[in-house]
Input
Amino acid sequence: MSAGPLERLARAVGRVLPDAVRRRYAAKFALAFLVVAAVVAAGGAFTYLQTEQTVESDATTQLAETSGLQADAIGSWTERMTTQTRSMSAADELRSDRRAPAYVLLKDQLLSEDIVSIHLVDAAQDRVVASTERPLEGRAPSELNAPWSDADVPEGVGENDRVWRSARSYRSPVLNDRPVMAFASSVPRADDRYLVVVTRIQPQLERIQDTDTGEETTILNAAGETVLDIDGAVDGDLHAEGIAAVRDGNATTATRIGDSEVHAYAAVPGTDWVAVTSVGQSTAFAVRNDVGNSVLLLLLLTLASLGVVGAVLGTRTVVPLARLRDRAERIESGDLDVDLSTGRVDEIGRLFTSFAEMRDALRERIAEAESAADEAEAAREEAEAVTRDME
Output
């Protein structure tokens, strides 16, 4: 009967093995165990690396999505405030000094709850025409320490829809120096007049700070200054590449892994701002580390289990076979009193039993041969005695 594929493979492998391995079953067993262990270790290492890379990619992708959502939220807020400011500046009351238009708008509750104050400025007269903050009425904007005092508000046909906003937040004396931002829009058909809307930014700061996940988002303007967090500062060189990627339009979002943090960048729609979301590597890659550790632990347990199985099989197979070989050699040298008893009932036990039966059969044959030899010797001596008598 022809040999099967596995048998032919085993023979082919056996032909390339060194003689020292081919002659010893223990060496073959150890070599096979090492090969299996190496395959398992290689497969486990590959799985570990693949899993680590996949989870890390998912983590950075999720951070990029978070940065994009934060940027969209800030963009929606600026768009909403821009629309409100544009709409408020188009009110007919703003073209006349007869009433304080800011009070009228506030009284009618047409403003967002985030709006702190509004001011009507006449740039030609260099004065605040009306304001929700009475001490500011009649004062010159140039005397006020506020970015909207010299706001470059475009006006005229095709320009009235454009809304100016402060480049970054500033401290408001009305809110005990809490940070605010200003939006300004020209008043149609009223030359040199514009309306300033001052809004609190604390809700926006709270919205982009996620203390539960450890993620922190910073909004940067074109000058690299923090927009919402007036006291914040960032390393421009650290984020230069990521910011350039989104500002140049090469990507909607970008990510960068630093020495201790992971950063994601996203352009804020409708502005020249960039949202920078950062999180510590230990937090961002916590899942990756957990999954990697689980895979590594599984690999170590597999190798340990394989080692235990190999040790047990080696002890239960190689050692008994070596013992049987030594006793067979003693039988070969003529020692028929060798002990071949065993309590095993498997193939190794049956092999010991077969050798014991062969030893017993050999002992009987030798005994029979010795008995026949004794009888032949006695017959010979008897024949010699008869011969002597006859002589």
In short: The chain has a mean pLDDT of 77.
